[in-house]
Fold:
Amino acid sequence: QKEVEQNSGPLSVPEGAIASLNCTYSDRVSQSFFWYRQYSGKSPELIMSIYSNGDKEDGRFTAQLNKASQYVSLLIRDSQPSDSATYLCAVNPVEYGNKLVFGAGTILRVKS
Amino acid sequence: NAGVTQTPKFQVLKTGQSMTLQCAQDMNHNSMYWYRQDPGMGLRLIYYSASEGTTDKGEVPNGYNVSRLNKREFSLRLESAAPSQTSVYFCASSARQGIGYTFGSGTRLTVV
Structure:
């Protein structure tokens, strides 16, 4: 069974700070990596995908991937109270076809 | 612009009762999935359908059955509900490997 590990948190950051969320995975040949945001009582929403080593930026979000170290991270700049949610990391091992393996999520709390 | 539609949103069952959770997507996606989400355990795959006419077991299939009725619809059936099946159930779909999922709004199921 492929594994995806995340710190459950909660991670508390002040408004305007950078929030850094981390994820490690066990499968060396995974090719696709995703970050989902899930508000309390709601369904997961895809916010970032990354496929190559390095950084990918989209607005206030930056995803970072290091395949050699088997970790993927999500940076949220200028954090807002509306960013308070659970962030799920998901990995797509090559041999799993379309199936994703999810981490248990990190709770982020942004304090105003 | 419905995306993935799940019904019902809430359900309370007595132990031993049966029910079917319905899921439909209007994005012409090939693959569909059923996950359950429990506190601290993240999203766990119950069953999936890589394409119309095919279904396969996921990580936690015991106590469940599925039907891929056509390309749009993928239902999950609990034949004899047990308290351990109390959970939030999410249906999701994806177009192809390497593309993230789109989730439905979820069904909150309580078995008493």
User: Anything to note?
Assistant: The CA atoms of residues 30 and 93 of chain A lie 4 Å apart. Chain A has a mean pLDDT of 94.
